[in-house]
Amino acid sequence: MQAKRANALSAADLATIIQQLDFGSTLSEQLISQLASSAVALDLRRRRFVYRAGDPADSLYAIVHGTIKLCRIDHDTGREAVIDILSEGSLFGESALYSTAGRRENSAVAYANSRLLRIPSADFQKWMAEDDRLHDYTFRLIGQRLEQAERRLADFALNAIPARLDRLLADFSDRYGVPDRGGVLIDIPLPHREIASIVGSTRESVTVRLNAMRREGTIEFVNRRILVKRPESLVREISLASKVANPA
Q1: Same domain, residue pair 51 and 114
Q2: What's the domain count of the chain?
Q3: Angle between helices 132-158 and 161-176 (to 10 degrees)
Q4: Which domain holds residue 185?
Q5: Global pTM?
Q6: 131 and 166 together in one domain
Q7: Residue 56 within any structural domain of the chain
Q8: Are 167 and 228 in contact (CB under 8 A)?
Q9: Do residues 116 and 61 touch, judged by C-beta distance below 8 A?
Q10: 79 within 8 A of 96, measured Cβ to Cβ
Q11: 67-100 pLDDT per residue, tens
Q12: Cβ neighbours of residue 149 closer than 8 Å, sequence gap 6 or more
């Protein structure tokens, strides 16, 4: 199926794709068919925008394959703050369900060549009201994203850069890690400037810290990816940093 171009996919192809996605795996065949009739497949090359801040918030997107970066870009300086990096199976653009302004606050960019499904938010809302499984999945997704934002805010307020970096690597090891004989490989490219944007630091500071972790034997660099050789040490460092920041 991946050999077909996005605009050549049939309704049956789209239904098969939706059934394999995380949010569609428990849905009824009827609802999957309805979603497929409304969905549009899109192919995006790396660095192409899915949407920009200020665009109409009228659709949700599911990542069929590839990786999407959510970010906020300062209009005046062009500086970018990375909010998250999402991988295959993820649903995003959920602000279309609750935005009072009806406009995007953030931007979404293809972090790698990607295929997406775009689903109109009006249709998605209607099916959420009709299907408890879709409603519950979306409700949990919004809750998880809110919890993630709250944890990141607390991390910025309470922890120094090394602890933030440790937490990010631990989080990405859990979300994107694949077992490797040398540890856990975070299977997405992570340029130092992207890491710096996520943890609120500079590329130079992140490079210094990562090189120190490599010398310590905690990580290794493998084809623009990070191999976490001792995941347990990250957890231990995070725990120690939390105790220092929040003494009893």
Answers
A1: yes
A2: 2
A3: 160
A4: 159-245
A5: 0.86
A6: no
A7: yes
A8: no
A9: yes
A10: no
A11: 999 999 988 888 899 999 999 999 999 999 999 8
A12: none
Token pair, residue 89, equals 């199976």
Indicate whether 129 and 164 sit together in one domain: no
Tokens 């120094």, residue?
160
**Gap between the Cα atoms of 85 and 47, Å rounded:** 13
In the predicted model, residues of the chain with pLDDT beneath 50 are 1-2, 240, 242-246
Tokens of 123: 């249709």
**What is the per-residue DSSP string for the chain?**
-TTS-GGG--HHHHHHHHHHSTTTTTS-HHHHHHHHHH-EEEEE-TT-EEE-TTSB--EEEEEEES-EEEEEE-TTT--EEEEEEE-TT-EE-GGGGT-SS-B-SSEEEESSSEEEEEEEHHHHHHHHHH-HHHHHHHHHHHHHHHHHHHHHHHHHHH--HHHHHHHHHHHHHHHHEEEETTEEEE-S---HHHHHHHHT--HHHHHHHHHHHHHHTSEEEETTEEEES-HHHHHHHHHHHHHHHS--
Distance spanning both ends of the chain, measured CA to CA:
56
- Both tokens of 109, joined, read 């960019």
